[in-house]
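Fig. S4 source data, part A: sequence.
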Amino acid sequence: MALYHLRLIERLWGSRKFASFLFTLYPLASLIPPLLLALAVRPLSFSLVNALPAGPTTLVFALLAQYQAAIPTVYKWRLVTGSGTNAGGNVGRNAPGQGQADSAGIQSVLTFSDKTTTYLLALQLALSQLPGSALAALVGYGLGVAYRNGVLPERLVEWRLPGWMIGGSGMVGRREGEGFEGLRRRLEGEGRASGIEAAQGGEVRAR
């Protein structure tokens, strides 16, 4: 489900950049968590932390860093909890301003957005197999931030897979070109039709 929500990154970047991102970070995401576990976390925890979860947890959180920075929030909504009256239940006895202040002080407001579901799914993934899943999540998020902020080498960030590997210069490119060409022809046809109708209307008015 988290990967399904993160598909927006591919739509924003395009298939080539998205595939290049995964291909670039895959070696780092595969090597850094085990090295950290073996060299730092395991000795410091006296071998209590000795396992990492299977699956692309690191890559998911690397994508989550891009999702947080690049995808804007569409809408927000609030959940108000608590009682609408003050502790003594005598809002009506107080002055209007004081009663409203007491009532607002008891209520608590939680603000959510359309991105909250994605963050909750990622949090569930990070907490699924503690503490190894949390370690993989932190490493993945750190790699994503480093990729976006230019901390990684520039050549590594700007490298792209060849277009033929993802169909960028093959059938997909030709189909996109045909689609744009068809759209251009349709717009030209509509423009000509509008011009003819305008000319006919002018002739009728002149008569």
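Fig. S4 source data, part B ends here. The CA atoms of residues 13 and 166 lie 14 Å apart.
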